Every structure is written in C-alpha cells, then in structure tokens.
C-alpha cells in the first residue's frame, strides 16, 4: 500500500515531508527478530514544513517533547507490530494524533473575581461558626 498525503483538519501534510527508515525491533518477531528490520522510524521536519503555522509549531513542540529535536524534526519509532507495513501505519497515526492535538487551540481563560456578596456571606458564616464554638466552653456561673 502506498503512503498518501496525511489530511488533518485544515492542513494536508505531503508524503514527501515524511522520511521512513527501518531498523531492527526489540520484542516479538519469532525467528525473524534478528534478521528483518521491521521497526519503522518516521522523521518529519515540522520546522521547515510550510503548511504548519508558527503557533501550531509552538504547541507541537510542547506535545512532542523529547521526540522533537532542536532543529524541529519529529522522530517517531514504531515497533509494536511484527510487520513493517503495520509499524509504518502506526507511526503515521501517532504523528497525525500529535498534529491533531496541536491544531486544537485552547480556549482563553478570562480571570474572574469573587463578588463582595459572596465574600460577606463567607465571613458571616465563619463568624457564626466561631461564636458557636466559643460558646461550647465551660459555663461561668455563680461558683
């Protein structure tokens, strides 16, 4: 199956921007584990890709973490499956999930204040509770 352009929301990542290399994988593989390079390593140069906006690139840096190099290249190693094809699809899916998360702009939080009425009610409640507790002591009577 040929790899085609990745379409995520409003952007389309061209297949030419993805570079695959195959390495030997650890884990399951049976007798092939020492002979066949089944793990897929995907490299995507996000910094030079012109379809990614600068604000999306900034969010992508935070999401990718250590998987992104200083130069802005995302490196994803997929070795979950035994076949090269499934590992390549897994790497593409993980990249598209990262890009989807980076495209989502977080809603701006407008700071709010506690109203005067709420503060007054809270302090009145504390004062009443304090009076109740202070009246629980020994009764000073006509001893």
Total strand count, please?
5
The CATH architecture classification of the domain at 6-103 is: 2-Layer Sandwich
Q: What is the overall number of helices?
A: 3
CATH class of the domain at 6-103: Alpha Beta
Percentage beta strand: 15-25%
Structural class: alpha+beta
Largest sheet features = 3 strands, antiparallel
- Helix and strand run: EEEEHEHH
> Cα distance, first to last residue?
98 Å
CATH topology of the domain at 6-103: Double Stranded RNA Binding Domain
Mean of the pLDDT scores?
85
What is the CA-atom radius of gyration, in angstroms?
29 Å
Trace the largest sheet across and list its strands: 3-4-5
Question: Looking at the structure, what is the overall shape?
Answer: elongated
Question: Spans of 5+ residues with little confidence (pLDDT < 50)?
Answer: none
Helix content: 25-40%
Oligomer: single chain
Walk me through this protein's architecture:
This protein is of the alpha+beta class and 143 residues long. It has a domain at 6-103: Double Stranded RNA Binding Domain, CATH 3.30.160.20. Helices cover 35% and strands 17% of the residues. It contains 3 helices and 5 strands, in the order E-E-E-E-H-E-H-H. The protein has helices spanning 54-64, 84-103, 116-134, and strands at residues 6-8, 11-13, 18-23, 39-45, 73-78. Strands 3-4-5 form a 3-stranded antiparallel β-sheet. Strands 1-2 form a two-stranded antiparallel sheet. The longest helix is centred in the middle third of the chain and has 20 residues, at 84-103. The protein is elongated, with a radius of gyration of 29 Å. The model has no long low-confidence stretch (mean pLDDT 85).
């Amino acid at each position: 199956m040929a790899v085609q352009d990745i379409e995520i929301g409003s952007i389309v990542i061209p297949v030419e921007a993805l570079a695959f290399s195959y390495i030997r994988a650890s884990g399951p593989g049976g007798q092939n584990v020492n002979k066949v390079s089944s793990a897929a390593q995907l490299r995507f140069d996000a910094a030079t890709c012109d379809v990614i906006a600068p604000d999306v690139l900034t969010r992508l840096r935070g999401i990718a973490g250590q998987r992104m190099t200083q130069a802005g290249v995302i490196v994803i190693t997929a070795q979950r499956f035994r076949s090269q094809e499934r590992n390549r699809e897994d790497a593409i899916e993980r990249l598209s999930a990262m890009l989807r998360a980076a495209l989502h702009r977080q809603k701006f939080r407008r700071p709010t204040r506690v109203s005067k009425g709420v503060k007054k009610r809270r302090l009145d409640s504390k004062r009443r509770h304090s009076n109740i507790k202070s009246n629980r002591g020994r009764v000073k009577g006509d001893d």
